[in-house]
From TrEMBL:
<dbReference type="InterPro" id="IPR035571">
    <property type="entry name" value="UPF0234-like_C"/>
</dbReference>
<dbReference type="InterPro" id="IPR035570">
    <property type="entry name" value="UPF0234_N"/>
</dbReference>
<keyword id="KW-0547">Nucleotide-binding</keyword>
<dbReference type="InterPro" id="IPR036183">
    <property type="entry name" value="YajQ-like_sf"/>
</dbReference>
<dbReference type="GO" id="GO:0000166">
    <property type="term" value="F:nucleotide binding"/>
</dbReference>
<comment type="function">
    <text>Nucleotide-binding protein.</text>
</comment>
<dbReference type="InterPro" id="IPR007551">
    <property type="entry name" value="YajQ/Smlt4090-like"/>
</dbReference>
<dbReference type="Pfam" id="PF04461">
    <property type="entry name" value="YajQ"/>
</dbReference>
<protein>
    <recommendedName>
        <fullName>Nucleotide-binding protein DRH29_01005</fullName>
    </recommendedName>
</protein>
<dbReference type="GO" id="GO:0005829">
    <property type="term" value="C:cytosol"/>
</dbReference>
<comment type="similarity">
    <text>Belongs to the YajQ family.</text>
</comment>
């Protein structure tokens, strides 16, 4: 009997929205942010943080990251931020949201699996990778291999396990 699962890279947008709301609430009651205009905007493919200076920006990012972790989101969903100075002496940070498995990442994942588990078959289906094999233990080992690999650099979820 053949067993399989799918590898995807998706962002739970509801949990992301909740984490951003929690961050905004915490900033509204923090003493060091009294009277400082700080905005966090969630757009379709990025987050935009606008605040007074780099110190405040780092504090906002730390709070946001802790809220993401508490809500079970991988910090790899946050891409490399671009900081720029905005009007009024403020600083703006644009943080791309990372989702989807690109063709390059799919190649890296396939190569990792093939090197360690030659009997396991992988099939790329758009932004999803189907992994199939006869041995359940090997499939579990594939999941562990991918979770522990630092070569991939994107958040992965494992779904449709049968």
């Amino acid at each position: 009997m053949e067993h399989s699962f799918d590898i995807v890279s998706e962002i739970n947008t509801q949990e992301l929205t909740n984490a951003i709301d929690q961050t905004r609430r915490e900033l509204s009651v923090r003493y060091d942010f009294k009277g400082i205009n700080t905005e966090i905007k969630q757009e379709e493919t990025q987050l935009v943080i606008l605040t007074a200076d780099e110190y405040k920006l780092k504090a906002v990012r730390d709070i946001l990251e802790s809220k993401l972790l508490k809500r079970g989101l991988d910090l790899k969903i946050l891409g490399d931020s671009k900081n720029e100075y905005a009007s009024g002496g403020q600083i703006r940070s644009v943080i791309p949201l990372v989702a989807g498995i690109s063709a390059d990442k799919a190649k890296i994942i396939n190569k990792l699996i093939r090197e360690q588990f030659p009997k396991i078959r992988t099939t790329v289906q758009g932004e999803t990778i189907r992994v199939a094999g006869k041995n359940l233990d090997e499939l579990q080992a594939v999941i562990q291999l991918l979770k522990n690999s630092d070569k991939i650099g994107i958040p992965l979820q494992f779904i449709n396990y049968r």
